[in-house]
């Protein structure tokens, strides 16, 4: 088989969260979600299908992938092989410029890059909508990383109509995020396990789905208005409602750590002082602060007594998937 193909995809942080799968196999969510793609965090993946291989060879950050990761990525490559009618194994090299499995959406950029590089290396010509559908099968949030800027994942009901669409792909107003990396260790409870437990046991889950779905048009309107305060308030509300479902699961669990609450407290205090800043979290302890570039220095100064400079990463709106 021919060429090696390298693709880059950036991670995204959901402003309106996705939490819970109504079809775990196809990864069809219970509710739509809306995210912002970030420039600071990304994955580069190279794929080459070869007649010389007797199994997939998957390298992850210059090391052989662990057995679980390798199996998941090979199963995803099977989807590409089936579509391309290609009975060949692949050599995959992935460089992940995102702390892995720590709530910074490493799987989003990872599977979006694998979808893009793998499909093209297999000879498929897919538009972005088809790539979004494909990436979704690896990781739900990956469906949004195909696009830059603000992106909506329309929940749909099946493999055909569940995909992402751009809301504002080229962001021309002042909004960014400060990622507070509290730790970059893998989570003790994976997103997939946490979602399944929440869906099965939380008495609040149905209310979460209804509220999250209703928030999508509100968030889109706030983006059109370029209203960072409304965007921030809605994002904060969505994050806390999502995390409330984990606390109500049986058994209850949380991704919060003591440093998480410290970061939240700093943001709340700044806001009481008139600074436009809001926090959001995915399934992990790390906090993201939504703010403007103008107020970023003041926010960083307030966080500095509690977190090292290496823990405070400033990100702006990032691009969609590209080829290197």
From TrEMBL:
Sections of the chain in a coiled coil: none
Family: Belongs to the diphosphomevalonate decarboxylase family.
Domain called Diphosphomevalonate decarboxylase-like N-terminal: residue spans: 9-164
Protein name, UniProt field: diphosphomevalonate decarboxylase
Origin: domain of life: Bacteria
Residue intervals of the Mvd1 C-terminal domain: 178-311
Gene Ontology molecular functions: ATP binding; diphosphomevalonate decarboxylase activity
Cellular component, GO annotation: cytosol
One GO biological process term: isopentenyl diphosphate biosynthetic process, mevalonate pathway
PANTHER family according to UniProt: DIPHOSPHOMEVALONATE DECARBOXYLASE
Keyword Lipid biosynthesis: yes
Species assigned in the record: Latilactobacillus graminis DSM 20719
Keyword vocabulary terms for this entry: ATP-binding, Lipid biosynthesis, Lipid metabolism, Lyase, Nucleotide-binding
Tagged with keyword Manganese: no
EC number: 4.1.1.33
């Amino acid at each position: 088989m021919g060429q090696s193909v390298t693709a880059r995809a950036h991670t995204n942080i959901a402003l309106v969260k996705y939490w819970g799968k109504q079809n775990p196999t196809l990864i069809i969510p219970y509710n739509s979600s809306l995210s912002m793609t970030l420039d600071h965090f990304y994955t580069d993946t190279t794929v080459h299908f070869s007649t010389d291989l007797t199994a997939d060879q998957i390298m992850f950050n210059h090391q052989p992938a662990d057995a679980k990761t390798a199996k998941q990525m090979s199963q995803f490559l099977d989807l590409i092989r089936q579509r391309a009618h290609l009975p060949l194994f692949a050599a995959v090299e992935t460089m992940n410029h995102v702390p892995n499995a720590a709530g910074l959406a490493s799987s989003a950029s990872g599977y979006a890059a694998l979808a893009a590089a793998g499909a093209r290396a297999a000879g498929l010509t897919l538009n972005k909508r088809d790539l979004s559908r494909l990436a979704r099968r690896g990781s739900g949030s990956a469906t949004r990383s195909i696009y830059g800027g603000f992106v909506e994942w329309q929940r749909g009901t099946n493999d055909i109509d569940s995909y992402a669409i751009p809301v504002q792909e080229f962001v021309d107003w002042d909004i960014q995020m400060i990622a507070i990396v509290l730790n970059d260790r893998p989570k003790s409870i994976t997103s997939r396990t946490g979602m399944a437990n929440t869906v099965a046991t939380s008495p609040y889950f149905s209310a979460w789905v209804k509220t999250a779905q209703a928030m999508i048009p509100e968030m889109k309107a706030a983006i059109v208005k370029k209203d960072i305060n409304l965007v921030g308030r809605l994002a904060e509300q969505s994050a806390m409602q999502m995390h409330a479902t984990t606390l109500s699961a049986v058994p209850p669990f949380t991704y919060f750590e003591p440093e998480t609450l410290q970061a939240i407290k700093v943001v709340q205090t700044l806001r009481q002082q008139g600074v436009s800043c809001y926090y959001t979290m995915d399934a992990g302890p790390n906090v993201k602060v939504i703010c403007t570039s103008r107020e970023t220095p003041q926010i960083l100064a307030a966080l500095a007594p509690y977190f090292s400079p290496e823990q405070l990463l400033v990100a702006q709106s990032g691009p969609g998937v590209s080829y290197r």
